[in-house]
Write a structure and sequence with these properties.
The protein has 120 residues and is mainly alpha-helical. It is 65% helix and 0% strand. The longest helix is centred in the last third of the chain and has 19 residues.
Length: 120
């Protein structure tokens, strides 16, 4: 029996993604969560997993090439660009099950207000 060892600490990454997602909101959190679940999928090739780890790590870790504190708009563009690139590269691995899981998580984190039509 062969035991595969992984270098990815999913729990640590999940905590960081959760903090990030709750601070940026539902719309911005969705692609990040989709990338996380594609990363965890056994069907995703290793090269795509490495790309996702790099993009998510750059997003959630306190290391930046361009500081968002000093150059707010420009400082966020590099993070957004890394996410967009990773997302476009691996979006073919997003399954309906992954989309459903992400939608369920987002619904728990950001419940939408339900309105009823009151007739007089």
């Amino acid at each position: 029996m062969k035991i595969q060892k992984t270098m990815t600490d999913y729990e640590f990454l999940w905590e960081k993604i959760t903090d990030y997602a709750k601070s940026v909101g539902r719309t911005a959190a969705r692609p990040v969560l989709l990338l996380y679940y594609v990363l965890k999928s056994p069907d995703t090739p290793s090269s795509d997993k490495m790309l996702i780890v790099a993009a998510l790590s750059y997003l959630v870790l306190p290391i930046d090439l361009i500081s968002a504190k000093h150059l707010p708009i420009i400082g966020w563009i590099d993070e957004a660009a890394s996410l967009v690139y990773a997302y476009k590269k691996v979006c073919r691995h997003i399954t309906p099950d992954i989309e459903s899981e992400v939608d369920n998580i987002l619904e728990r984190w950001f419940p939408e207000l339900k309105y009823e039509l009151i007739e007089e």
